[in-house]
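Exercise: predict the fold of this chain.
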Amino acid sequence: MKELTHYINGEHVKGTSGRFADVYNPAIGEIIAKTPLASAAEMDIAVQAAAAAQPAWAAVNPQRRARVMMKMVSLLNRDMDKLAEALSREHGKTLPDAAGDVVRGLEVVEYCIGAPELLKGQYTDGAGPGIDMYSMKQALGVTAGITPFNFPAMIPLWMCAPAIACGNAFILKPSERDPSVPIMIAELFEEAGLPKGIIQVVNGDKEAVDAIIDHETIQSIGFVGSTPIAEYIYAGGCAKGKRVQCFGGAKNHAIIMPDADMDNVVDALIGAGYGAAGERCMAISVAVPVGEGTADRLVAALAPRVESLKIGPYTSGNDVDFGPVITGAAKDKINALVESGIEQGATLAVDGRGFSLQGYEDGFFVGASLFDNVTTDMEIYKQEIFGPVLSVVRAETYEEAVGHAMDHEYGNGTAIFTRDGDTARDFASRINVGMVGINVPIPVPLAYHTFGGWKKSAFGDLNQHGPDAFKFYTRTKTVTSRWPSGTKEGADFSIPTM
């Protein structure tokens, strides 16, 4: 059995807590490694190393820090296939989807090459008699990120790249379910020229999370995961005086207007609803067609497409649509929610229960399910299923459809499909959701904009990546200066007198 390590001060370090988590290959349902779960003492060792290394890194000028980002982009492209394969092996994603995971992280690293511009302060000449005033953006010190299993490359890079570009050290606590790629990323950063100690990877569970919250040296925490944990970390981190941004659950609605191009809608919903087995916080899990005719056409077009989805391991080639879910427990939860939908009266138009893949019977595969006639009081509507399940909630009017998205407790992403510009404009303006797609099913902003939801999908004032990241990972210092006058007239050879 392979025993994984932490990555502390540029070295692979074995765990000393005596506690481990099993790492599975979800396609075969077998344990392929075990990863150490850090104690508070182990976390402290990493934090001390980071604190020792950070001042010298912050003193490096931003242009030289940006050159590390430039080299990192090259290395991520060089090792793309290796990273994707490792990611697929532990997560279950198809290889193209795993490569996309890396690329969306790489794009944030590219944005961080602009650190010299993004870190410039402001200057006022002559703010008063002989007084100048200027501001500086300075690093926080030691920062930390707690990242989820579903994007083991993208989200760590979203956090660590801007943190490091700003001159901070970064402690990464990745998911214990797929920890290999985060360590590979740390190794690549050091190959790119990052000094030892600036990025640390400490594997762990709640004990490691609590150690991050409680450690007085850590100045900020970033988190992506479930809403209950987001609320826990946000409350704990803020109580300790840290800067905290936490991103939680989602239930993303797609509104389908009667004038929408139904072929395009179906293509969009198939990819956005079932890609990555639905294990995306930006997955479309609720389709809201407006009008009975629109709903009937949508379900009739969707059902055969859902039934024809190809499910298999990443080793089966690039034509596989999606792979297994992350664990057996996740599979059981998804199947239980499907059962609850039936019991509560929804129509199961496509039944994914009982799916089994020949030769992979022990894998964590879940068949694709499609529900029709879902109502807002059902568990399959209220909960984030995080599986290959799409629910159709019929609405009589546009106002009713918009109301469903606005009334839900989550506000991560949403989309509308229509040919009418006025409808689209009204939707984008009124909807109380952080990221909006207009004929775009997964409206994840590019790296130079920011990513963030509303309502119970996000906690904190600033979003991820883009300009907000450089605000989150720096603090502003404003200097007011005045210099004494009188020396510019030249030397005075007389004895000074009052």
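Check your answer against the key: The longest helix spans residues 40-59.
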